[in-house]
Design goal:
The structure is a homodimer of 264-residue chains.
Chain A (H helix, E strand, L loop, with lengths): L5 H11 L2 E15 L2 E9 L5 E2 L2 E5 L4 H13 L5 E8 L11 H13 L4 H5 L6 E8 L13 E8 L10 H15 L5 H5 L6 H12 L5 H11 L2 E6 L10 E5 L1 H10 L5
Parallel strand pairs in A: 1-6
Antiparallel strand pairs in A: 1-2, 1-4, 2-3, 2-7, 5-6, 8-9
Chain A binds a DNA duplex (30 and 30 nucleotides) through helix 8.
Chain lengths: 264, 264
DNA sequence: TATTATTGTATTTATTTGACACAATAAAAC
DNA sequence: GTTTTATTGTGTCAAATAAATACAATAATA
């Protein structure tokens, strides 16, 4: 296991005193690749447990800024689409001290080199956590694990492992929110590369809605909304007609989203 | 000004030690009366300032339970429709100590009989607050002011006074959420009395959507959804045809809401 | 008994949707 | 070079939905 440097330890020990003691945030960072919706997960060094990327809020920091900071630390990305979706306040979220997960975190931190008892107790606090979700261009993100984690990876939402605490519930809520808010969120613009085919866009909608859409009707509806620019054809190398590439007319797209784009 | 009893003071002073120190909640409690959407507001004893009913969360209490407790304390109502809509985490929410509102609260509490300096400092804390909204049958609610307030009143959402802190923003967000979630919320069942006319239902929708709906088309659409029971006519005493009274078939209504009732 | 305002329902027209047809086409197979 | 293949862009057509309007029914009044 990688030990942390003394300065990493000192940094976190300093920060703990400046964090709000009972509030955290967790980010459901979604991307889209190989026609799959993916979420960024962390895997702990000590026992391989999976969790959502999260963090704490400095006493003099806006909750929103803290969410942007966590997103930046995990992906290197700034100024992205980031939306709060729910705050989880079950008193059972404080179950750490008496249960395996709490003991395990303290062992983990001890092994990493933490010695300050105040800091070792930190994760025993009850945290009310606010869930944020971000939609990012997966090709531009550079996943970075945090100090508790060995890795930071994109996982398909169709095959999510058991996550710590209530993180599976948090992720589930984020996906539900995404579906309900679908018509008001810049899904395509956030998740697809600059240029994409109509099939890319359709598969994205299908993976969010979890149901197939009829190809030619999808194309007709989308084109009628008139927020796409058509570009050159994409020669795919396959033995069939080549599709056009499209990009978003961002102004028209955002104007339409204000009142919701009707799909469902 | 009414002084509080010694036991009321002792109660709150005891409770403060058991509250989470940086989290609060505020309730946007909505009712419907005289064809107007109304919200329950409190008016402080000391200076007549208006605010949303709110409260704090006990260290061993679920956030949701705390919201139900506040709702019950202000309206006497239990087990109602209550939904979280947003958490407000601006660091400026902690501006109390240096600004007029903070000084004013301490003066207020001193005049009410509070002496414990820990308690007088309580409102200087930075609170991240979670907004809940409730939809209630206004005729069944019994508004009760809290210990800081002289009155607890229903105000039309069309004429909201200046509220303390960011409470106008919180209320605005709740109404926006209500509009966007309209098709998924039991608006009619929660806000109307057991029996109502089609006009009552239409006016309710119009006051939420803020736009007129065509009468006969509204009636046709609603009846086609088949979740209303028709009862006897209501003789209004006016020189025209008497409307039928309707009530909800609650099972069918809730089944439809799961997938959203299309209106907008 | 005629008048009035509102209600319940029907009609008419335009628009949207879902299902499917089909020619166009880029590359591979022959 | 011709045929085959899979996919794309567009068209069609019937069914469903929506918006605007018409109109008879009716409870109370004049």
């Amino acid at each position: 296991m990688d030990d942390l440097t003394q300065s990493q330890i000192a940094d976190f020990e300093d920060q703990v005193a400046d964090f709000l003691p009972n509030h955290s945030l967790d980010c459901v960072i979604l991307g889209y690749e190989h026609q799959q919706l993916k979420v960024l997960l962390l895997q702990w060094k000590i026992n391989g447990a999976w969790c959502l990327p999260g963090g704490f809020i400095f006493k003099d920091e806006d909750l929103t800024s803290a969410a942007h900071r966590v997103l930046r630390e995990r992906t290197g990305l700034r100024q992205l689409f980031l939306n709060q979706f729910h705050t989880f306040g079950s008193q059972k979220r404080a179950a750490h001290p008496t249960e395996r997960e709490g003991q395990m975190i303290r062992e983990h931190m001890t092994q990493l080199g933490f010695r300050n008892p105040e800091v070792l107790k930190w994760f025993d606090n009850r945290f009310i956590t606010t869930g944020y979700f971000a939609l990012v261009d997966i090709s531009k993100a550079q996943p970075q694990p945090d100090f508790l984690s060995a890795s930071c990876e994109w996982k398909s939402v169709d095959s999510i492992p058991k996550l710590i605490l209530d993180h599976n519930e948090i992720l589930g809520r984020a996906l539900e929110y995404l579906r309900i808010q679908l018509n008001y969120l810049p899904i395509g613009l956030s998740l697809l590369p600059k240029k994409f085919t109509m099939q890319d866009l359709q598969k994205l909608y299908e993976s969010i809605l979890q149901r197939p859409l009829e190809r030619s009707n999808f194309q007709r509806k989308i084109l009628k909304l008139n927020f796409l620019n058509r570009h050159e054809k994409q020669m795919t190398g396959a033995a069939n007609k080549a599709p056009y590439l499209y990009s978003f007319n961002e102004k028209k797209y955002h104007d339409l989203l204000e009142n919701g784009i009707g799909f469902l």
